[in-house]
Amino acid sequence: MRCACIDIGSNTTRLLVADTAHGGLGAVLQQRAFTRIGRKLGADGGIPAHCIADVAAVVAAQRAAAEQAGAQHVRVVATAAIRAAPNRAALVRALRERAGVEAVILSGQDEARLAFAGAVATLPVAPAGAVAVVDVGGGSTEVALGTAPGGVTWWASFPIGSSALAGRQPPDPLPAERLAAMRARAAAAFAALDAPAPDVALAVGGSAASLPRLAGRTLDAPALERALARLAAAPAQEIAAEHGIELERVLLLPAGLLVLGAVAERLGRPLSVAHGGLREGVVLELARS
């Protein structure tokens, strides 16, 4: 079955169209638009009307692309920035009217569960023992623990992500004192994380997906610090051109790195970058249903 997920996040709105078979999936089409909802929120956390209109137009275009690619079913989900917005119903209504879709606003628990499912299902071999999946988004971070055959048995959601930690106008490059302050804030945000010890820890989300070009797929403390030093030593435009990463993502990478590092320290395990996450989990669940 060919299914699609449109994922409205704090930084980006992304489309995945994939074929599913025997519990796995193969990507057919992927698109991404930097809709930057998290940076445009009003003082009360509300989503401005112009931003709602822009996101609805992006989702309408992505739905059309999914259907053109042969998707039989399309599910639209929204995460932290929308979940916390007092006028989230206005966005849901605009998506219904403009894009003809009924968006589902995911809870933190749903985000954790779906990211876990997508990360584990796209591994070449199902890992034995306890697995942790760390999903760093723009506005929140979800941590889920469980097993490949049994699914999630423990989860937590924290209201901090790459965009929330970086702020609306992060300096480029970040000065040492700003990095130190962000590092302290990330450590404090996860001080209460007291998860069962995993045998394997996986990282998913936009920051994690971009990091292999800078740090490799194994994100231990030395690899994260090397990547952070490189990001702090040059303008974002230079890093973007050198490594083929979008400028918007490079500006958020230091914050994403610090969040990943803080969670890895609490878990007591290095993180390995997974190939799948939330969108893959949504597609698999949609196909099964």
Order of helices and strands: EEEHHEHHEHEEEHHEHHEHHHEH
CATH superfamily of the largest domain: Exopolyphosphatase. Domain 2
Instruction: Please tell me the total number of domains.
Output: 2
Side by side, the strands of the main sheet go 8-7-6-9-11-10
Q: What Rg, in angstroms, do the CA atoms define? A: 18 Å
> What percentage of the residues does DSSP assign to strands (E)?
15-25%
Number of strands: 11
At CATH level 2, the architecture of the largest domain is: 2-Layer Sandwich
Shape: globular
Structural class: alpha/beta
Quote the CATH topology of the largest domain: Nucleotidyltransferase, domain 5
Our measurement of the CA-to-CA distance between the termini, rounded to an integer number of angstroms, reads 11 Å
How are the SSEs ordered, and which strands pair?
Blueprint: E1 2-8, E2 13-21, E3 24-33, H1 37-40, H2 49-68, E4 73-78, H3 80-84, H4 88-99, E5 104-105, H5 108-121, E6 131-136, E7 141-147, E8 151-158, H6 162-166, H7 176-189, E9 200-204, H8 206-210, H9 212-215, E10 218-219, H10 221-233, H11 236-243, H12 247-267, E11 271-273, H13 278-288
Parallel strand pairs: 1-4, 4-5, 6-9, 9-11
Antiparallel strand pairs: 1-2, 2-3, 6-7, 7-8, 10-11
